[in-house]
Amino acid sequence: MLRLIGLGLSIDTLHLGSLKRILSCDEIVVDGYTSVWFPSIHLLTSLLIQLGKKVVIASRNNLEGGAAKSLINKALDKEVCILVAGDPLIATTHSSIITEALTSHVEVEVMPATSVYNAAISLSCLQVYRFGKVATVVSPKNGIIYEYPFNVIKMNRSQNLHTLLLLEIDIEKNYYMKPHEAIGVLLRIQERLAENVISLKDIVIILSDMMSCKQRIWIVPVEEVLKMQSEFQRNILYTVIIPSKDLHPVEEECLNLMKKSRINHQCMVCEEDLKKVLQIFSTQ
Prior knowledge:
Layout: E1 2-6, H1 16-24, E2 27-31, H2 41-50, E3 54-58, H3 65-74, E4 80-84, H4 95-103, E5 108-111, H5 116-124, E6 135-137, H6 148-158, E7 163-167, E8 169-170, E9 175-176, H7 179-193, E10 203-208, E11 216-221, H8 222-225, E12 238-242, H9 249-260, H10 271-282
Parallel strand pairs: 1-4, 1-5, 2-3, 2-4, 6-7
Antiparallel strand pairs: 7-12, 8-9, 10-11, 10-12
Helix pairs in contact: 2-10
């Protein structure tokens, strides 16, 4: 069997069912390049190794092409787990692994989990059915600016929908796009296309370190984001939401209240808690 297991965004969102499945596996491969997990993916890996599990933190090359096929071949007569921060099939390429496994007549199980996508929507106080297409903002490559995210915002706003923007990350190169960089890229595209989709007075929602003890939410105008470089120095996962031009009264009231206060995430699970749970499950 091949199991694709979502770890959620943090130690607080790791399902007990997922832990039992992880401990049942003969081999465990941890996706180390798609996203981040709090407090550290190395913590979970270390605890599993202490329990005698065979664990490998994989780079992109270890989970694509020939390496993926080799892993699937092992799953013909072993139980193999692939652990993914967040949800295993949102904003990743792991669906190709499932296709390959099923083609090879390997049984597959997917364990969904909390992802940036659903956590950001919940924390934003915006209504889920008013979200349009999602896009990822990437930095210019060789002088070429990727216009797709701007076009998505334009399309969503024309239908009075919110836009969830993922920001480019490259964990292996230690690159994490910051919110002011993303907004800057979008405004450059807008200027070049002579459009008027995003104004400097528009409110944006910025989320960072979601479901960790350092979780932050900013609700600020676009012009303020451009001045907040000092706020966004750390290499962490940021998510940006561009709300629709016309908010529902309930959304507007909630956002106004959130500006005056803070929605915190109080961490309830620590390393010792996780260690105890793993030890209990490993003896069953």
